[in-house]
Design brief:
- By secondary structure, this protein is an alpha/beta fold.
């Protein structure tokens, strides 16, 4: 399927405004023009010139670009490149670029599903009647329904209780049952590492994504800079590849600097400024290679649906063998609401939408048998509470029933700051004079945890590197929690105090 008119007009806009071909808001590639070779080669030329900073496109520049490629030159000649550029530049209205773009991309999307074996006749007959999201959701929903019908990844099993217990006992003895490590040793002890569906709640802009990415790095980055030893050391907690699904467009350009900062110990501010001291630039370059070797996959999906998220996690589990998935973050983007309303035939309240999304995350966590880390915003009620409860979760407090671990990260209140300052005077705790507490993590739920719900972990989060340091933990009244200490979890499941 190919709309020649829309493709010509789209090219006309790109000729007038080449920078549109490198705009992240409008992702294009040569496959969008693959049905017409001349259009595809012209797009490639425009894109290459735009990357070099061209403000306009001429036939001469396109010919100069393909010097040495006689086949492309002949293709341009046979299609009268100069006349084509002049004509489409006049008839294409840049103000309608988004419309031309949408039509071309929908054609590409339909072709992709058609090549995969789906029946696309419905959309080919009325392409303008559907959005890209509606087309994609239709086919992904079909695939998900088939998967659920055949219970893929969730086959029924029967066994005699106790039959294999001795073998299981010996297995636990050799390698205790702990999931991938958090950055926080206290969280490792409370939750036995990262396992099940883990929900981190917090105020908007307070660092949920930063802490989540730090936990992902702890899972997969093979080495990191040790500030005390002043050298890169093996990350004994690394268990294998990981996936981070980003739903925020504004965060896209922040992720690589943040990850490099975590590995290198060099602040992302310095990285973005290009300002280094001593060996910092060398550390950053080393960190970039470590990151490539560590297999941390990032998927940008601002227009996500529950179906697309489930499919993405399954895909990366089956193809890349990920050991942890992070979805950042639970929210209603409109597409999820439309998807669920389409399934139920009933308009959905926001709390029901967020609950449904949380439920799907739990389902895919079970199917793939890997930890899934996610986050949600608080609703402001936590400011009036002595200790936060599930009532402060944005959307639906019923979300907590779907999770295996739920925590709330908040800035310390005055009484917590006072307690921390008193603790600094206790030399047994080893808190340095310049140490600060800028985050308190409140434990709301820990399935099968031996510790009470209302544990508070006093922490220092370095927002420049994404690294988190635990200072101590108390109950909600400020008393030390008996038996709670920090655990470091190595990749073979061993634990160390």
């Amino acid at each position: 399927m190919y709309d020649f008119t829309a493709a010509r007009l789209l090219l006309g806009c790109l000729i007038q405004r080449p920078n549109l071909s490198v705009d992240d808001k409008y992702p294009l590639n040569k496959k969008d023009f693959s049905e017409q070779l001349f259009h595809m080669r012209l797009y490639q030329a425009i894109h290459a010139l735009a990357q070099r900073g061209a403000n306009s496109i001429s036939a001469m520049e396109c010919y100069n670009l393909c010097k040495g490629n006689q086949a492309v030159k002949e293709l341009f000649d046979s299609n009268n490149l100069s006349a084509f550029i002049e004509t489409v530049s006049k008839v294409a209205d840049v103000n309608n670029f988004a419309l031309y773009y949408s039509t071309v991309r929908k054609c590409s999307l339909i072709n992709a599903f058609k090549e995969a074996g789906f029946d696309t006749a419905k959309f080919e007959q009325d392409i303008n009647g559907y959005t890209e999201e509606e087309i994609s959701s239709h086919f992904l929903s079909q695939a998900e329904k088939i998967s659920r019908e055949f219970k893929c990844g969730a086959e029924r099993e029967e066994y005699l209780a106790g039959a294999d217990f001795i073998a299981t006992k010996n297995k636990f003895k050799e390698s205790p049952d702990y999931g991938p490590s958090f950055q926080s040793p206290y969280l490792n002890n409370i939750y036995r590492g990262q396992s099940g569906l883990i929900l981190r709640a917090g105020k908007s802009g307070f660092g949920k994504s930063v802490q989540s990415m730090g936990d992902v790095c702890k899972c997969c980055c093979r080495e990191y800079w040790d500030d005390e030893l002043k050298q890169f050391v093996p990350n004994k907690s690394a268990v294998g590849p990981a996936l981070f699904i980003n739903t925020e467009m504004d965060l896209r350009k922040e992720l690589d600097p943040l990850i490099i900062a975590w590995i290198s110990g060099v602040s992302r501010g310095k990285i973005k400024d290009g300002y280094y001291r001593g060996d910092e630039e060398e550390r950053v370059e080393r960190a970039a290679q470590i990151l490539l070797d560590s297999k941390l996959y990032i998927v940008d999906d601002p227009c996500f649906t529950t179906t697309s998220i489930v499919s993405t996690i399954k895909e990366y589990k089956n193809i890349h063998g990920i050991k942890l998935a992070c979805f950042d973050y639970i929210q209603n983007n409109g597409f999820v609401a439309s998807e669920i309303a389409g399934e139920t035939k009933i308009p959905q309240r926001e709390d029901m939408v967020l609950l449904a999304l949380t439920d799907r995350l739990k389902q895919v966590q079970r199917m793939c048998d890997i930890p899934v880390l996610t986050s949600v915003q608080t609703n402001g009620m936590e400011d009036t509470m002595k200790y936060p409860t599930e009532a402060c979760l944005a959307g639906s407090k019923g979300q907590i029933r779907k999770t295996d671990a739920t925590m709330v990260i908040l800035p310390p209140k005055q009484d917590e700051i006072d307690l921390f300052n008193m603790a600094k005077e206790n030399t047994n705790l080893g808190i340095g004079e310049n140490a600060v507490c800028n985050t308190v993590t409140h434990i709301l739920k820990g399935r099968n945890s031996k510790f009470p719900r209302h544990v508070k972990i006093y922490q220092q989060v370095d927002y420049g590197t994404g690294r988190t340091h635990d200072w101590f933990a108390t109950d909600k009244d400020g008393n030390q929690v008996s038996g709670l200490h920090g655990l470091l979890i190595e990749c073979d499941g061993r634990k160390q105090i």
